[in-house]
Fold these 2 entries.
Entry 1:
Amino acid sequence: MPQALSEFDLIKQYFVRQRPGRATLGIGDDCALLTPTAGKQIAISSDMLVEDRHFFAGADARMLGHKSLAVNLSDLAAMGARPVAFTLALALPQADRHWLAGFAEGLFALADEHGCELIGGDTTKGPLNICITVFGELAPGQALRRSAARAGDDIWISGALGDARLALAGYRMEQNLPPADLATAAARMHTPTPRVALGCALAEAGIVHAAIDISDGLVGDLGHILKASHVGATLDVDALPAGPVLARQDSALRRRYTAAGGDDYELCFTAPAASRDAIAALAISCGTPVTRVGRIDTEAGLRLVDAAGLPLDLQLTSFDHFSG
Ligand code: ADP
Ligand code: MG
């Protein structure tokens, strides 16, 4: 039997890396020390993943490592901030070496892709709970705030929506999906791609007004922009890009899951029509497709329309932990 891991052995073995990092002082002291780049602001965000709430008990550790950082990087992307560092607060039911190795592998693969350094955290015994705080940098005045949408703006979406929600329906047996389709859709649910390059490029180019990442479903998340910006919107539901598996389902399901799926981690942003060409060019250079799906109006409220511009009543609800 291998010896039981102590808390400090666990941190050292799985989370301390022997390589120079961006932080002035990394893991090991009471605090980490970060020296901000001169003239930059620091963007900070936390996101927690709780077993049985955000993922199934027994979920693959490698995927959890990826997703717990991905959802945080998605918030930086939605603000237009470049990832710098993160902390990891972990409650674990036991120190399982196999689980820890998988988790660290998924976590650091994504962290390295974005040059984001683990600089500290906390480790305790308890029901599985993963909380990450990310730190990013951006120039003052460049942040893509929810309150910045203006009437006349186009509404844009990155990537494609709805496959993560479709996978959930597949797991719950609400939808009957062939195993290969379920696997493709589930990959979107378990290993979302944070749109960091696109979010940062849009913010740095100064061609976008408001942005948000779509975690709880487009209609609900766009609603946050509308409220903060004191505007309304018209959304062409049939223009919403569906994920490859959802794209093959009937139009009622496609409309429902693209408009209010959840767990997409795509960006929704608004920009003046004058930015169209520049946005299309940036999207190509970032390798992330973007689609124009509606416009911001002075009239309050969100109007859902079909491809012909006729009103749709989809009776959608957005995800809410305390009323869902
Ligand atoms: P303290 O007693 O001051 O809370 P700890 O003993 O919890 O500090 O942690 C020791 C060091 O290890 C600290 O630098 C802390 O940031 C780091 N650390 C603890 N848990 C983790 C983790 N899960 N990932 C990365 N660093 C961690
Ligand atoms: Mg501690």
Entry 2:
Amino acid sequence: MTPVTPRRAVWAFALALPTALASIAAAAERTTPSIFDPVSTPAFAIRELSYRVFGITGFIFVVVAGLAVYTLIRFRSRAGDERGEPPQIYGSTQIEIAWTVVPLIIVVVLFLVTARYIYGIERRAMPAGALEVTVVGHQWWWEVRYPGLGIVTANEIHVPVSDPAGATPTFLTLESVDVVHSFWVPQLAGKMDVVPNKTNRMWIDPRTLGTYVGQCAEYCGTQHAWMLLLVVVHPRDEFERWVAAQRTPARDEVAARAGYQLFHSLACINCHTVRGTPANGVFGPDLTHLMSRRTIGAGAASNTPEALRAWVDDPAAIKPGALMPTMKLSSDELNHLTAYLLTLR
Ligand code: CUA
């Protein structure tokens, strides 16, 4: 067997690195949102700031590493070198002042550059045509309210595209009902903490149609990792149609009557609202248009009939720690209930 020498280990690492990086990049292509791919003004500003900070710190890195490499090579010990130890110098006020003041100046510059960008984003006043959305963090999902439109949904924010010609930004009010969460959709804006008893504000003006992925960015308990959200950016007319559809009360389909009755006889209605029915709980997500959403459990599963049935049967099997209890329903009851939920389009 070949012994693993440090040199071999370094070579193995160096050879494996490109493959590892390529697979990370491929995975990133599919799922991971990047701050380097912005589509909204605050996110563009953040990318610009990142480049500036990388520029400044990169320059410092090159200078320091360059001097270190130069010193290592220029003053290395050579064969037959008789000089022994270099002179030992203890303390130099001038050098100590220099290496205190220079980093201080660098930190102040970085601080001022950052403050300028933060101020630029924060001072933007809400224009007349802006859409207002309130996002409420829960363990472990996002409640999304449109106070001006009478819509309540969950884990998906639908907004109109904001082209620079006729800007229609969306202003977000961020709240939490339990613990501190953090709202972060990297391609749209920076992170903003969602704090109980405090209201935070931020805004986005997505210029490109598409669906952008966000995630809670502050550890908030067992299911912090499954607190995903989607921001869907529509053309104006498509957004209007989404609003119109969301504003309608829930359907009442005769075929799903058994499920409807079951739903309203169980504890479901203590936590969930279905507009147009007696169910008006506010602890869990509003289910009026449940089937218009892509995921259940804030991204824990795709919103398919099978997953929905499994979720109602035992939420903890899909999302351990989820606050929705299992109702211990029979297979028939589950079928009826799922059939009813499927009508909530
Ligand atoms: Cu909510 Cu982490």
